[in-house]
Amino acid sequence: MHTVLVVEDERKLRELVRSYLERAGFAVLTTGSGAEAIKLALSGDPSLVILDLGLPDVPGEEVAREIRPAQVPILMLTAKSGDEDRIRGLELGADDYVTKPFVPRELVLRAQAILRRHAPQGATTAVARFGDGELVIDEGRREVTVRGTTVPLTPTEWALLVGLAASPGRVYSRSELINRTRGYEYEGYERTVDSHVKNLRRKLEHDPSEPRIVETVLGGGYRLGLTRDRT
Ligand code: CA
């Protein structure tokens, strides 16, 4: 869950923004003080700061400067409209800018958009390791590494391997594997599965005549012969 720090000295507006953000699933910290905002932002908790430019103690511009080392994205609020202010806000490192009066829903959408842009690359897709690191599947980068070497796979080979790796040790019939590759390839006969598996083995196996990664199960189909590593 993301924590958003709302810095706004007008209590009513602050609470309105808080309630909208909470309804959108954010944890919310609030303050009306620029000095406290700097402390909270530098504490590292907030993933985003919504910052009013017009604060009574420390001007918003200065708050933005002070919290820059925390590298937390800033969505600025201002009563001033006009391009000059907008550009000034962006120069201060604001990621986006909302002019009062605003629609709270709009503010929430902008906040979500900023957090999406700032999401670390590949954070949502895990890197999976199998057989003590013999096989590494990085879904985010769509990359397969075998015994330390990155191996280029065709889309069908990739789909087959990811399908098998979803449940190591489980036996997949050829028709199940065809389903898994749907969307990657139209040619879906059972014997084409066999030929793709053959190619996959040539790329992955230490000895393709004695496959250990993509195993054949007699009368059944195929399974991943490696167990998934604990990370
Ligand atoms: Ca204000």
Summarize the structure.
By secondary structure, the protein is α/β, with parallel strands linked by helices. Helix content is 38%, strand content 21%. The chain is elongated.
Give a verbal description of the structure.
The protein is an alpha/beta fold and about 230 residues long. The chain folds into two domains: about 5-115, Response regulator (Rossmann fold), CATH 3.40.50; about 125-225, Winged helix-like DNA-binding domain superfamily/Winged helix DNA-binding domain (Arc Repressor Mutant, subunit A), CATH 1.10.10. It has helices spanning about 10-25, 35-40, 60-65, 85-90, 105-120, 155-165, 175-180, 190-205, and strands spanning about 5, 25-30, 50, 75-80, 95-100, 125-130, 135-140, 145, 150, 170-175, 215, 220-225. It has a five-stranded parallel β-sheet, with helices on both faces. Strands 6-7-8-9 form a four-stranded antiparallel β-sheet, with no helix packed on it. Strand 11 and strand 12 (about 220-225) form a beta hairpin. Helix 1 packs across helix 5 and helix 6 crosses helix 8. The chain is elongated, with a radius of gyration of 26 Å. The mean pLDDT is about 85. Calcium ion binds next to loops.
